[in-house]
Design goal:
Blueprint (H helix, E strand, L loop, with lengths): L3 E7 L5 H18 L3 E7 L5 H6 L6 E6 L4 E4 L5 H7 L10 H4 L2
Parallel strand pairs: 1-2
Antiparallel strand pairs: 1-3, 3-4
Pfam families: KaiB (PF07689)
Organism: Actinopolymorpha rutila
InterPro entries: KaiB-like, KaiB_domain, Thioredoxin-like_sf
């Protein structure tokens, strides 16, 4: 069973954009990989060194760290279908989005 791991980088964890991005990410994960994902929220206001380390230029940014390859999406993830595809999450049939197109 594949477990998906994400890091969500935000500028202020309590800001509306940050909360929206986290909510959207969880909704996308629940619809595609329920019970098989973990999200770590990194507030760059309190950990600014992480921005340089992860090469974060804008927030919110989510990075899928596992399974490889890494995937990166910038924004609040309001288009769930597009976010799922960009993050390489499986479709309703369990196929990865990149596999579903071929």
């Amino acid at each position: 069973m594949t477990v998906y791991t994400f890091r969500l980088y935000v500028a202020d964890q309590r800001a509306e954009r940050s909360e929206t991005a986290l909510w959207n990410l969880r909704q996308v994960c629940e619809s595609r990989v329920a019970g098989r994902y973990a999200v770590e929220v990194i507030d760059l206001d309190s950990r600014p060194e992480m921005a340089e380390e992860a090469r974060i230029l804008m927030t919110p940014t989510v990075i899928r760290t596992d399974p490889p390859p890494r995937r990166r999406v910038i924004g609040v993830l309001s288009d769930h279908q597009r976010a799922a595809s960009a993050l390489g999450l499986p479709d309703a049939d369990g196929r990865a989005e990149e596999d579903a197109e071929t």
